[in-house]
Specification:
The structure holds 2 protein chains of 2 kinds.
Chain A: E1 4-6, E2 10-14, E3 19-21, E4 23-25, E5 31-38, E6 44-50, E7 56-58, E8 64-68, E9 73-78, E10 87-95, E11 102-104, E12 108-113
Parallel strand pairs in A: 2-12
Antiparallel strand pairs in A: 1-4, 3-9, 5-6, 5-10, 7-8, 8-9, 10-11, 10-12
Chain B: E1 4-7, E2 10-13, E3 19-25, E4 31-38, E5 42-51, E6 54-57, E7 64-66, E8 76-78, E9 87-94, E10 101-103, E11 107-111
Parallel strand pairs in B: 2-11
Antiparallel strand pairs in B: 1-3, 3-8, 4-5, 4-9, 5-6, 7-8, 9-10, 9-11
Chain lengths: 114, 112
């Protein structure tokens, strides 16, 4: 079964500093990759997704992620964070060979400090 | 366009009680699913449906039941609530071509 590992459970970062959130998934021939954000007491909002094509994906709010097939990774980056980026971020994967179910990582809490 | 609507938003149950969490979508999505969110564990798939009349189990199905009589609705039933089912539950639907998931705002369930 597909598994998704987010290597950091919490990431404190100062405002205007860069941030990188790491995500690795178990190997598969064909996957779709996603990053979601959850603000406090809210549902999940899609930040970006990789279905095919360019391995560098740009999303909303200045976030981007890079798909690395050889390392089975899909790390999320933002060059300069704002206080409003304080949230929990989830990496998720659809394994097309395993029923197209969306599997989530454990989440990374980002706390942006002034 | 309401998207995915979940009711109720909050619920407290006593151990052994049963209840149904409601989920409705107005986007004509064939695929719908239920997740539970627990701290440090992300979201785990409970049950999913690929269309009316078709359901299947996800990662953590025990203690839950689903049915899909219409495209719009996908209720989740707790048969006999247990404290281990204390969680936040999310319903989601997905379009068939671009894999765009839309999530509801969640139901926070406490079982005492």
């Amino acid at each position: 079964a597909q598994s998704v590992t987010q290597l950091d459970s919490q990431v404190p970062v100062f405002e205007e500093a860069p941030v990188e959130l790491r995500c690795n998934y178990s190997s598969s021939v064909s996957v779709y990759l996603f990053w979601y954000v959850q603000y406090p007491n809210q549902g999940l909002q899609l930040l970006l997704k990789y279905l095919s094509g360019s391995t560098l994906v740009k999303g909303i709010n200045g976030f981007e992620a890079e798909f690395n097939k050889s390392q089975t990774s899909f790390h999320l980056r933002k060059p300069s964070v704002h206080i409003s980026d304080t949230a929990e971020y989830f990496c998720a994967v659809i394994d097309k060979a395993a029923g197209n179910k969306l599997t989530f990582g454990g989440g990374t809490r980002v706390l942006v400090k002034p | 366009n309401a998207g995915v609507t979940q009711t109720p938003k909050f619920q407290v149950l006593k151990t052994g009680q049963s209840m149904t969490l409601q989920c409705a979508q107005d986007m004509n999505h064939e695929y719908m699913s239920w997740y539970r969110q627990d701290p440090g564990m992300g979201l785990r798939l409970i049950h999913y449906s690929v269309g009316a009349g078709i359901t299947d189990q996800g990662e953590v199905p025990n203690g839950y039941n689903v049915s899909r009589s219409t495209t719009e609705d996908f209720p989740l039933r707790l048969l006999s609530a247990a404290p281990s089912q204390t969680s936040v539950y999310f319903c989601a639907s997905r379009d068939s071509f671009f894999y765009g998931y839309t999530f509801g705002s969640g139901t926070r369930l406490t079982v005492v």
